[in-house]
Amino acid sequence: MKFAFHPEAESEFFDAIRYYEECSPSLGLDFSAETHATIQRICAMPKAWQVLEGDIRRALVHRFPYGVLYAVEDAQI
């Protein structure tokens, strides 16, 4: 299954990478890898996570205080 970021979510994602990179070298890379691993789990099992509202679901990112909010639309996350 394919995925795409909402423009505001993509901006927040890159801001978080920069923030973690400023905190500690390579921590931004770790955050990016954990987030992408979460997205891959979502793509493999899109209905596995809790519905928050309507068709919006949330999967938590390991090691970081973030969640990926998503919806399945036209066979895309």
Could you state the order of secondary-structure elements as H and E?
HHEEE
Report mean pLDDT, rounded to a whole number: 96
Give the DSSP E fraction (strand runs of 2 or more residues): 15-25%
- Class per helix and strand makeup: alpha+beta
In spatial order, strands of the major sheet run: 1-2-3
Poorly predicted ranges:
none
Q: Which overall shape is indicated by the principal axes computed on the Cα atoms?
A: elongated
Distance between the termini: 7 Å
* Overall structural domain count: 1
Quaternary structure:
single chain
Estimated radius of gyration? 13 Å
Discrete helix count: 2
Descriptors:
77 residues; alpha+beta; 3-stranded antiparallel sheet; 2 helices; 45% helix
Describe the protein.
With 77 residues, the protein is α+β, with helices and mostly antiparallel strands. It has one domain (7-70). Helix content is 45%, strand content 16%. It contains two helices and three strands, in the order H-H-E-E-E. The protein has helices at residues 7-23, 27-44; strands at 51-53, 56-60, 67-70. Strands 1-2-3 form a three-stranded antiparallel β-sheet, covered by helices on one side. It is elongated. The chain starts with 6 loop residues before the first helix and ends in a 7-residue tail after the last strand. The mean pLDDT is 96.
